[in-house]
Amino acid sequence: MRHPPAHILMTADALGGVWQYSLELATGLRQRGLTVTVALMGPAPSAAALAEAEAASGARILPTGLPLDWTAERPDAVTGAAAALARLARETGADLVHLHAPALALAAFDGPVVAVCHSCVATWWAAVGEGPLPDDLAWRARLAAEGCRAADRLLAPTRAFAEATRAAYGLSRAPEVVHNGRRWREALPEAEPAAQPATHAFTAGRLWDRAKNAAALDRLAARLDVPLLAAGPVEGPNGERFAGKQLRGLGRLDTARMERELAQRPVFVSLARYEPFGLAVLEAAGAGCALVLSDIPSFLELWEGAALFVAPDDDAAAAEAVRSLLADPDRRAFLAEAARARAARYGADAMADGVLAVFSHLLGETRSRTLAKPLSGAAA
């Protein structure tokens, strides 16, 4: 018996890497015959950006205005958003719901729910804070823990983060690992790789987020004789702000501008204290940039043997690593090619296939249960 293509309701936000992840995944699922509706939470990008995203991914994108779990002011705002998503799933006829935050699983969904552990306040605080969780984070962690147990399946982008999530919430088993992936395409004419790599360093991310460790990057910039360019917002929706003195800020870059910056093949640096995956690193590696990374578990898992590693707060060691690459073109070229080859493992097709396997298993179980139910009034 053939079933119609499954309809997936997927949540996303446009404030960070989840947006790119969601569009890449939606594209892959559409190519595999699924229908995808994206429920966009939090601030929405411009109408032009939304139209471009819909055209590129083939998904229907619905700005909901619902609060994000990490910016909501009260617990009932999160559970209310979850309830609204359950209603939207019913209204759109979704067969399965794919959530970008486990806390959003705390509602009565009619079908199976997959929650992706992209990041969470408990593991974030363990990396950047001191002492017990502040009250404003403690209730968010409690909802995340409850959501982890409510979801039918949990996913995480690395083994390191899956294990950190299991430990943080006392789960009986770690989330299943499906690496994030990027769709590598032919470069735009204006973003063709430079004949010679640039003689500067580059970083990208939410600079206001303490996890990105922009303060250490700023100290690193002061030690270098070449510029350290920094792409990304310096002010967050939660009021956090970063004011650097030595970094050369570029602000938030669109996709085309980011591709042009990476096409110059600068030395890419991330001194993050916490990064469940790191899509910016993946993009830099795919563009052929040599990498200098913090030696946190997720980066070591993904990039060991294809990058230079330093302690997150050791700006002196980071400066020496950057200088050594700039002074040794052969070593830099070797590491850049190693990074590019490693990035090829983390493609969008592998990600879509991994997620689809989880969906197929859950939808198969659901349909089997449905078919097993006796029809009303049928003879015993």
UniProtKB/TrEMBL annotation:
Gene3D superfamilies recorded: Glycogen Phosphorylase B (3.40.50.2000)
Domain Glycosyltransferase subfamily 4-like N-terminal intervals: 16-181
Pfam families: Glyco_transf_4 (PF13439), Glycos_transf_1 (PF00534)
Entry GO MF terms: glycosyltransferase activity
Cited InterPro entries: Glyco_trans_1, Glyco_trans_4-like_N, Glycosyltransferase_grp1
Domain Glycosyl transferase family: 243-341
Superkingdom of origin: Bacteria
PANTHER family, sorted: SULFOQUINOVOSYL TRANSFERASE SQD2
Protein name, UniProt field: Glycosyltransferase involved in cell wall biosynthesis
